[in-house]
Specification:
- This protein is mainly α and about 140 residues long.
- The protein has one domain: Serine Threonine Protein Phosphatase 5, Tetratricopeptide repeat (Alpha Horseshoe).
- The protein is built from seven helices and no strands.
- Helix 4 runs antiparallel to helix 5.
- The longest helix is centred in the first third of the chain and has 18 residues.
- The N and C termini lie far apart (about 40 Å).
């Protein structure tokens, strides 16, 4: 198993155990290892998780930077999972909102992707943030 995959698994375990600082450090190591391995989707996955941890810890600026880089990496790859892109857009929107900035475009795109993928919880969350009750489908 490549090093970045092992690190991602360790980071998930640390987060599940409530060891948030260890999870953050391990996701950061996973991102570096994935870069070194030339695995941009794995880099984006690690950055998406870092964004979530940073936002939850009250660090919206690094959360936004990580989420935006993840979105860019996913967009650059035709083989990137659409759900991963939707989740990175969600992280972008949440970080923008935490900074008091508009997030409508990110919520719209995330909501559209969630609708396309049949992820009702994602659609509902996007609709809530967009202030709508029924999105056109």
């Amino acid at each position: 198993m490549p090093e970045h995959e092992t690190l991602m698994a360790e980071a998930r375990q640390a987060r599940a155990a409530g060891r948030v600082d260890l999870a953050h450090a391990t996701y950061a190591r996973a991102a570096l290892a994935a870069r070194d391995a030339g695995a941009p989707i794995a880099v984006a996955d690690a950055l998406r998780h870092l964004s979530d941890l940073d936002r939850e810890a009250g660090r919206p600026t690094p959360a936004l930077a990580a989420a935006q880089e993840a979105v860019a990496l996913y967009r650059a790859r035709a083989d990137a999972p659409r759900l991963s892109l939707a989740n990175a857009l969600r992280q972008t929107a949440l970080a923008l909102e935490a900074l008091g900035r508009p997030a409508l475009d990110a919520w719209r795109e995330a909501g559209d992707l969630y609708a396309e993928l049949g992820v009702e919880a994602g659609v509902t969350e996007a609709e809530h943030h967009l202030g709508v009750t029924r999105r056109p489908r």
